[in-house]
């Protein structure tokens, strides 16, 4: 007996049950998939606009036609509703919402604290270590570039503490003039702290004060006939002035972000210019997912809510379009940051010039992305022709194996679609229980673990499965798919050509057993090579991490009598495993809880 079909959703009846309070509403389709999340200052009025209007935009009408169920959550204020809406969109990813695809935290420059010789370093993540954090910066590249400049200007060390504590002579950085070698006390604590203070002032945006101070010190050194020292300061001042001219932007004295949006051919680009302490930190482009015919103002509103409500925010946000939630967002961001945050869209003078710059960046980046997408689409179409598929593939997966003489074997699986790499679907498999160096067994295990879920009805199945290797690796893939009863996947081996030169790869077709040689001009081979190279990169990075972890673990953790607490005390006292290896028995005995017998066992384990 067939179950009764679900009755059609009665939107008008649902609206009659609603309150006029602020809150969040959610729409679901017949399969329970979330279609849309929205917020409202008046739930009855806002939700009613979907079901009581005689005419609606095509985008709204298409969504409303699919609604089978609706839910609401009442909040105290419209601001709380906006915050909840942003959180739900980011976590649930509804189909018809504008979704910012960016889940990375900001990178910072970190200056360690509580040390005679602090260090500067790249930092991303929780700020729970003693010291100062400068930023945020728009990208990893901006941080690396800034650290490189800081090393040239102020010579503050950037090496890891474990490396620093175990130096017996200056490293290469000192020899090329980028470090004053505090590791071997070639600089006094007082002089080093002065360099650190100048670095802090520069990172705070007080470069003019640093220049004035250094110029004064240069004059004093010259009067004291310390001409070599004075010349070094002269060069430092000249470098700072040049850098200041390159990075300082007149009119950007306040911290601010300038945000512009452009939409074309169903794709949006949001470009952000970052300014901190009058210094331009560069730009960053975002490509949010769009629901049909969204407008730039809609995109900017969702961008600000999703990007800044859980991140540090500057004092000013300059927007390319007026947004409907501007006042509410400003109040929420002010509460979050503990200081006044302004959202502006009508600006003059230099701020208008910055906005034009952001708009040009957004248009240029969008044009480049569209061209790239068209190129990628052409490559997918060419692959369809080359492999004689019925239609262009929608999902390509590639597997690769990485190890060092059989140690710490890792298999990678990367996924590409018509939009490019789908990194949220990437997977790594730590291979165990095989003969070290047996690539066939490693591939068999990885493929079994991946496609067992497909056989059980879980997860997406690729249209094309690329295997880095020749007929032997392809045979492993075919064997696994046959064992699991998975059909409909085109398996292709990617074998290196003569001399391992790019563009001369051979494609081994599992279905027919044919070998194809597309040649270096083939767009299809360009796509295959790009996917293969990404799988190779992903496998190598996973292998290196596993190998390093295994090598660090296997020595101390296997010594009888060494538990987590003693191991931590050893590594902390000697600055890492290298320091423990360099220590003698007597030095090891100085650690609390380690007697001579245990110290001798540790020494023996570390020295064979």
From TrEMBL:
Keywords: Cytoplasm, DNA damage, DNA excision, DNA repair, Excision nuclease, SOS response. Gene3D superfamilies: 5' to 3' exonuclease, C-terminal subdomain, GIY-YIG endonuclease, UVR domain, UvrC, RNAse H endonuclease domain. It comes from the Bacteria. InterPro entries: GIY-YIG_endonuc, GIY-YIG_endonuc_sf, GIY-YIG_UvrC_Cho, Hlx-hairpin-Hlx_DNA-bd_motif, RuvA_2-like, UVR_dom, UVR_dom_sf, UvrABC_protein_C. The keyword DNA damage applies. It is found in: Cytoplasm. Its main location: cytoplasm. Residues 208-243 form the UVR domain. The keyword S-adenosyl-L-methionine does not apply. Residues 258-481 form the UvrC family homology region profile domain. Residues 20-98 form the GIY-YIG domain. GO terms for biological process: nucleotide-excision repair; SOS response. Interacts with UvrB in an incision complex. The UvrABC repair system catalyzes the recognition and processing of DNA lesions. UvrC both incises the 5' and 3' sides of the lesion. The N-terminal half is responsible for the 3' incision and the C-terminal half is responsible for the 5' incision. This is UvrABC system protein C. It comes from Dyella soli.
